[in-house]
Design goal:
eight-stranded antiparallel β-barrel; mainly beta; globular; single chain; 8 strands
Amino acid sequence: MAEPRFVIQQHAATAMHYDFRLEADGVLKSWAVPKGPSTDPRVKRLAVQVDDHSLEHGDYEGPRVIIWDAGTWRPLTDGPVGESLENGHLSFWLEGEKLRGGWTLQRTSGGAKPQWLLIKRRDEEADARRNPVSTQPESVLSGRTIEDVAAGRE
């Protein structure tokens, strides 16, 4: 069976953010990450859980949205992914074009829009000096930046 995929879409909505999506249980489990992911394990990024999206949505790039990173992922936490998310803690490994290595999602509050922290784990892929959000702004699908897409540039 193929490993599930992940996608991170940069989204120029009311406020610029990154939609972090993990394929699980036939949908894309989704979080809005205002500052985007960090490869520094000391940095904890806010990730606000949003509604699940269809798997097809993971291929979407269009006005105000680019596919910033994509690849496969696998859980590092034992047990079903849905159960881990329900319990508020999921550790996983990403194999993306920009992001690789271990990560953790840790819920910090519940409610209508649960808040989580997205944290890079300390492993060989961790790098406090690297900032892919600013140094690699282009889409892994089209090579365009969010500014190119917004301006209608090919």
